[in-house]
Specification:
Layout (H helix, E strand, L loop, with lengths): L5 H14 L12 H8 L3 H13 L3 E4 L3 E4 L4 E5 L5 H7 L4 E12 L2 H6 L7 E11 L2 E11 L6 H8 L2 H7 L6 E11 L2 H7 L6 E10 L5 E10 L3 E5 L11
Parallel strand pairs: 3-10
Antiparallel strand pairs: 1-2, 4-5, 5-6, 6-9, 7-8, 8-9
Length: 244
């Protein structure tokens, strides 16, 4: 009879302890050194067990911080007023945005059409990660019309919040004109950003935001980690109370 690999036995033990609530959502697991001492194995074996838990979505690692039990999926309402910070705070978790790049370049065909711009008109591209409680839950790219919103690139560097940046540029409110949702598999780069296995399921959201006069102010593409976010269609339309 084939023997169970030691790393698989360690992974199964930790999985059972997570299921029993010995390690709750958000808790940090013991260090590799502590687990190696507990199970009487080397750290390579422990590392393989922890990798298995991560690949199955039970844990996630934070560089330099350790391995943590993954929380339940975050409810994320999609309505006419989508505000990242408000949505995440409402779920009881701490919102954070991490800037990957902000640059100015010519609009591609899709962006120009979405923003009602002339072909190759200048746009400001804001790419980043959205996190909830330290977990990366989405990779986003937001595109803004450069001539309508001069200087918004510098503002985004200061605040990272789209809602706050637009407010500083005279747009106190904006609404979602449309949202299109599709399913995709994570590319190698997306997997790296979101700490997922390559090919993991993603929910792709494409949307356009407009000011109170119906003028487009943002075209956005967001890839949500499929196992970390529960997207819901909201019939909101109370004014936003917090930046996003």
């Amino acid at each position: 009879m084939a023997r169970t690999p030691v790393w698989a036995s360690i992974a199964a033990t930790l999985e059972q302890e997570i299921a029993r609530g010995l390690y709750a959502a958000g808790d940090k697991l013991p260090t590799e050194a502590a687990l190696a001492a507990r199970f009487g194995v080397n750290r390579h074996t422990v590392r393989r067990a922890l990798s298995d838990l991560g690949e199955r979505g039970l844990t996630h690692s934070r560089r330099g911080a350790g391995v943590f039990v993954r929380a339940a999926p975050t409810d994320y309402p999609l309505g006419r007023r989508v505000r990242f910070h408000s949505n995440i705070r409402a779920s009881g978790r701490l919102p954070e945005k991490r800037v990957l790049r902000i640059e100015t370049r010519p609009a591609d065909t899709t962006e120009a059409e979405a923003l009602d711009l002339a072909p190759a008109a200048p746009v400001i591209v804001y790419e980043g990660l959205s996190l909830a409680g330290g977990d990366p839950i989405a990779h986003f790219t937001s595109v803004f019309p450069a001539e309508r919103l001069p200087g918004i690139d510098a503002t985004l560097q200061e605040t990272s919040s789209v809602t706050e940046a637009l407010r500083r540029h005279g747009i106190a409110d904006y609404t979602r004109a449309f949202t299109r949702l599709t399913a995709e598999a994570a590319t190698a780069t997306q997997a790296l950003h979101l700490a997922l296995p390559e090919g993991a399921p993603l929910l792709r959201s494409v949307g356009r935001n407009v000011d109170p006069d119906g003028v487009p102010v943002e075209h956005g593409v967001t890839h949500f980690a499929g196992d970390r976010v529960a997207l819901t269609v909201a019939s909101d339309d109370d004014p936003p109370t917090s930046s996003g």
